[in-house]
Amino acid sequence: MAWDSLCRGDLLRPKIRSASRRTTGSQSSYKTPSLEELRHLLWTRTHPTGHVDEVWPNLYVGDLYVARDKAQLSRMGISHVVDAAAGRFHIDTGPKFYKDLPVDYYGIEAEDNPNFDLSIYFYPVARYIRAALKSPRGKVLVHCAMGISRSATLVLAFLMICEEMSLADAIRTVRSHRGICPNSGFLKQLWELDLRLGREKRRGAKVF
């Protein structure tokens, strides 16, 4: 894959402001948006999508092309790869593919299907990303085939769980750097996560 078509801005570090879970009003005033409102938020003024974009400091969302371009990953300094489309019939990279790079690999055999339960991976992947970002020179690529549904969903869940963002704030944060579109099933799973995190927050329970 030639990288001549890769926009220069794709690899520039974005200027990202930290957002908290309840950025507007008190904790009790926050209300999870409806699925229709979330779909509108995702589809309004969609940001262009390149092969890879930094959506949070040292956290990248990308597609299969960047995942397979080891020279590019090396130039970017990627230390950890989360493959949200792992498996023989998807993007069959794996630890052996990256054996000549100082890269730690985490694979998930997920289907980009509204009926697939991706939520079972929300907390394990969030923990993995958090630990990777805290490691020396940690840079994480989360990818799937196109970098808009499976991988985006996992990154949104990470921002909600570990950065204490609301789902709406997480969507706004990622969309300001990359066009994303979780399928309807994944969006509903994120919506349910937002409801659950909101209840735990109101109870004063430790979210993560």
Describe what this molecule looks like in 3D:
This protein has a 5-stranded mixed beta sheet. The chain has helices at 35-43, 64-68, 70-76, 94-97, 122-134, 150-162, 167-175, 184-203; strands at 52-56, 59-62, 80-83, 104-107, 140-143. The protein has a domain at 49-110 and 118-198: Alpha-Beta Complex (Protein-Tyrosine Phosphatase, Chain A). Helix 5 packs across helix 6 (150-162) and helix 6 packs parallel to helix 8 (184-203). The protein is 38% helix and 10% strand. The protein is of the alpha/beta class and 208 residues long. The protein is built from 8 helices and 5 strands; from the N terminus they run H-E-E-H-H-E-H-E-H-E-H-H-H. InterPro entries: Atypical_DUSP_subfamA, Dual-sp_phosphatase_cat-dom, Prot-tyrosine_phosphatase-like, Tyr_Pase_AS, Tyr_Pase_dom, TYR_PHOSPHATASE_DUAL_dom. It catalyses: O-phospho-L-seryl-[protein] + H2O = L-seryl-[protein] + phosphate; O-phospho-L-tyrosyl-[protein] + H2O = L-tyrosyl-[protein] + phosphate; O-phospho-L-threonyl-[protein] + H2O = L-threonyl-[protein] + phosphate. The active site is at residue 144. It is found in: Cytoplasm.
CATH class of the domain at 49-110 and 118-198: Alpha Beta
Mean pLDDT score: 85
Structural class: alpha/beta
- How many runs of DSSP E, i.e. beta strands? 5
Largest sheet features: 5 strands, mixed
**Cα distance spanning the termini:** 39 Å
CATH topology of the domain at 49-110 and 118-198: Protein-Tyrosine Phosphatase, Chain A
User: What is the global morphology?
Assistant: globular
What fraction, in percent, of the residue positions are helical? 25-40%
H and E order: HEEHHEHEHEHHH
Specify Rg, calculated over alpha carbons. Answer: 16 Å
Low-confidence stretches: 1-27
